[in-house]
Write a structure and sequence with these properties.
The structure is a single chain. The model has no long low-confidence stretch (mean pLDDT 92). This protein has helices spanning 3-31, 56-69, 76-102, 110-130, 153-171, 177-200, 206-233, 242-259, 266-269, 271-290, 300-306, 311-334, and strands at 137-139, 146-148. By secondary structure, the chain is mainly alpha-helical. It contains twelve helices and two strands; from the N terminus they run H-H-H-H-E-E-H-H-H-H-H-H-H-H. A two-stranded antiparallel ribbon has the order 1-2.
Length: 335
């Protein structure tokens, strides 16, 4: 089958499968009264209290079914990409479940969540370091230079997974925000993978091409599944992705960039996640030092809300900037 046709089918099947899962998941969450508790100080979102959460289950299910149907799990890199995404999704699910059970916005304790994230990060980092298709070599964007980090790859990769999962988690605060920005990010990664398969991957090494193709199937499955989720998550959201979704997306973005040996492009495809992290760090540090707030509320998207910008516009701005970042990321690999 032509690779372009296959990836198109992967996207369509993932979309359709997630769409099918959506209605029973939303109905089940409503029956369980699995509504998202809203933080008391986020008063602009009081009307969203009770909206079903843990919607990440929908697109994770759609992605898994599609990845399995198209053989991604038959190859090591594809199987590990799915496994890493599900492991982070499980951590998020536990966090969401506790919030729903206790009817409070405090789920897993911070140290519990970090231990879980770190555990997965350590395992996947060691796997990447020892895997012959990944290794400790990374590419430098906009150049033909590759660098072998040797043992330094392990702390580098570990920090990447922790940073990405938490950055996406911080950004998940508006209807459709993470779903749309991450879809843009995965689309950029998909374009890079297609380019690599067409021009970079050595045709004399069919084993590597199969491994890379399995990552491509995973990436396009995430795109299709997220597109279906956007249908239900756009403002006003019928369901939130919860930590189940945001942590799994962060892990998925990180694992794909590591597998294609371009981890630095996370700064481009995840540019708005970087903004969220920086805004929180600056807010905390300045407040501790001077007892003053730099932003009306952190992360930055809440600051924009309090400046009077409509939620839908903020999501549009974030998505457009991510699309631009994604285009730059593709160019950085292609040139």
């Amino acid at each position: 089958m032509n690779i372009y046709v296959k990836y198109l089918l992967v996207t369509i099947v993932a979309f359709a499968t997630t769409f099918i899962f959506a209605y029973p998941v939303i109905k089940f969450m409503k029956r369980l009264k699995a509504g998202q508790p809203i933080l008391s100080y986020v008063d602009k979102h009081e009307g969203k209290s009770g909206t079903p959460t843990m919607g990440g289950i929908m697109f994770l299910a759609g992605m898994c079914v599609t990845a399995a149907a198209f053989g991604a799990m038959s190859f090591t890199l594809g199987a590990v990409a799915v496994a890493v995404t599900l492991c982070y999704g499980l951590i998020g699910f536990l966090d969401d479940f506790i919030k729903v059970r206790t009817k409070h916005n405090q789920g897993l304790k911070a140290y519990q969540k970090v231990i879980g994230q770190a555990g997965v990060a350590i395992i996947v980092t060691i796997f990447c370091y020892r895997n012959p298709y990944v290794t400790s070599t990374i590419a430098i964007p906009f150049t033909d230079i590759t660098v072998d980090l040797s043992w330094g790859y392990i702390p580098f990769c570990f920090i990447l997974f922790i940073a990405m999962t938490n950055a996406v988690n911080l950004t998940d605060g508006l209807d459709g925000l993470v779903a749309k920005t991450s879809t843009a990010g995965f689309t950029a990664l998909a374009a890079i993978i297609v380019y690599m398969l067409a021009t970079v991957a050595d045709e004399s090494n069919p084993a590597y091409r199969q491994q890379l193709d399995s990552v491509g199937v995973f990436t396009f499955a995430m795109i299709g599944a997220l597109l279906a989720f956007i249908w239900f998550n756009s403002n006003p959201a019928k369901i939130f992705m919860g930590d189940t979704g945001s942590l799994s997306i962060g892990g998925a973005l990180a694992v794909v960039t590591v597998f294609i040996k371009n981890p630095f492009i996370n700064l481009l495809i995840g540019i708005m996640y970087v903004v969220s992290c920086i805004s929180v760090i600056v807010q905390v540090l300045v407040y501790k030092a001077k007892k003053k707030r730099v932003f009306l509320m952190a992360p930055y998207h809440h600051h924009l809300e309090y400046k009077g910008i409509k939620e839908s516009k903020i999501v549009t701005y974030y998505t457009l900037i991510t699309v631009i970042g994604g285009l730059i990321a593709v160019i950085s690999v292609v040139v």
